[in-house]
Every structure is written in structure tokens, then in C-alpha cells.
Amino acid sequence: MVKYILLGISIVSCNYYIDPKLEEISNQKEKIVLVDIDAESDEYMGERKKFRDSLIKMVDKIKKLRPSVIYLNNSFINSSGGEKEFATELNRNMATISAFELNDSGEEINFTEDIKNQIGKTIKGRFYGRADNYGFTGINFPSIEIVKKSKAICSSKYYINDSNEVEFVYSLNRYKNYEFENCPFTVVNEYLISYGLKIALDKIEGKVALYSINNGKIKKIKNLNQIFEKKYNAIPIKFKTFRKFTGKEILEKEEIKIDLGYIYIINTLDIPVKVKYNRMISNSEVFGSMVYTLLDSITR
């Protein structure tokens, strides 16, 4: 009897601390801003070093708005020189999240021992010892200076269904003996740090789950709403529209009025993506909707 009573108290206590957090997240889950560097913005920002200087200026303006997370949909694999200076300035005062590239080229570029030593640290992923034949065959990382200065480096991939539509968000991307966290999960987990929460794939059940983190101890709270799609656990994307700026608008506006705490998604390659109902939307809207979907799923 005592054991049952103690268990009941533990569950009530857990819910007492978790429920207010989930309610607050539910109220904040649409606080996402998209910044698209479209063709006009790209021309305005210039090439190579000038582009990077413009990007630093843009990110600095966003940092003044006190965001919760800044994600750059860019892998910075085409070095323009001055990597250390660029990495330092881009991540000054508030470090950013950006991506590396997975592809099917069959080539490894800049996959050095220094880079491998960052996997499980800044690079969100792990070595898991079993080579899979269904993962990507090529990998390309930015410079070690960018990796070390960043808040996180992740792999950004979305997959199409039989109708060539993006429909689901997946937790992991695989390359040989490695699995890497998909960037929407990385962005959400960075946002959840202040709440003492995280989402990850439960390796035992094979389901994406919500966890609490307290004094280094991780405790599973619940599985997220998902379906089993082609042998992978996938979460159906809830597509939303968000407040959006172009890169040129951010750079030219003297004053931008946005409340603090927003997640900013800076999209450096603006391309259309097919989604359900035969609609075409920008890849930034797809990424933003993935982030929104994950935040929404943990509050249900």
C-alpha cells in the first residue's frame, strides 16, 4: 500500500512541475519568424565575404530583439577565408545553430578527426557502430572554427512521399556508422533547455518522446503523437504560416518590432517545396512548420 501511495505522489508531483511548462510552451509555440534570403536579398547582400559580412549584420540586428534561438539554414561549406573571424563575429554574444551537408555524392569532405571529436558535443549526433545501407553516402562539414563557435551543428533533411510531397518530420538522419539529429529537433531542444525538457528518439520503444532533465538526470515523460511510416517513426507536419521578412528588409529597416523570445529561422536558399493538397510553399515555411509541429506535439 505504501508503495502505491508513494508512486501516486510521485506522478502528481511530476505533473505539478511539468504541466505549467507545457502550458507556457503551448502559448508560445507560434512565436516563429522566418527570414528568407530571396534573389533580391541575395543580390543586395553581395558575394562571398560581402555576403558573410551582411549576414553578420543581419544576425546582430536579430540578436537585439532577444530571440530564444537563431537557426541559419546554411552549412557554410564554401569557405571564403577568414573562417575564425567569421565564426567569432557570427556567434558573438549569442551562438547560432547551423547545418552541415548530407548527400549521395559518395564523398567525405572535411570529415576530419577534429570534426569527429565534436560529434555528440556541438555536432548533434552519435557513432552507433552499425553501418546502414539506407543512409546517405556523402558528408560535408564546415570548418572546425565554425563548428566550435556555434551553439549546435545539425543535419537538415526532409523526405518526400510517393506523391513527391513533404509530409512528415523525422528525428534522425544516417550516414554509415553515424546518426545525426535532424535540425528541427535541434532547434526545438535548444528552445526547451530553459524548461528543463528535451525531445529524442526512445531507442528501446523506437518512438519520439519528451523527457525532463533535472540535475543531469533524464526522465521520460511521454511519447509524442506519431505514426509508423516506412519503418521509421514520423510525426505528420502541421503546416502553418508565420511572420516573414526578407533578408533585405531586415538589413534596411531601422527598427523592427518583434516581442522577445521568438525562434528565428534564417533561410539562405529560398526554394519551393511541394506539400499536401498539391501546394507549393517555401522551404522556410516547411522548416518553421516542422518546428511548430514538434512544439505542438509535446503539449498534447
Account of the 3D structure:
This protein has 300 residues and is an alpha/beta fold. It has one domain. It is 33% helix and 28% strand. It contains nine helices and 19 strands. The strands form five sheets. Strands 1, 2, 3, 4, 6, 7, 16 and 17 form an eight-stranded mixed beta sheet that branches. The protein has a three-stranded antiparallel beta sheet with strand order 5-10-9. A three-stranded antiparallel beta sheet has the order 8-15-14, with helices on one face. It starts with a helix and ends with a helix. It comes from Leptospira gomenensis.
Number of strands: 19
Q: Biggest sheet: strands, sense, closure?
A: 8 strands, mixed
Helix tally? 9
Number of domains: 1
Instruction: Outline the low-pLDDT stretches.
Output: 1-13
User: How much β-strand is present in the residues?
Assistant: 25-35%
The overall pLDDT average reads: 90
Radius of gyration: 20 Å
List the helices and strands in order. HEHHEHEEHEEHEEEEHEEEEEEHEEEH
Global structural class: alpha/beta
Q: What percentage of residues falls in helices of 4 or more residues?
A: 25-40%
- In whole angstroms, how far apart are the ends? 32 Å
Overall geometry comes to globular
Organism: Leptospira gomenensis
Protein name: CHASE2 domain-containing protein
Q: Quick gist of this model?
A:
The protein is α/β, with parallel strands linked by helices and 300 residues long. It has one domain.
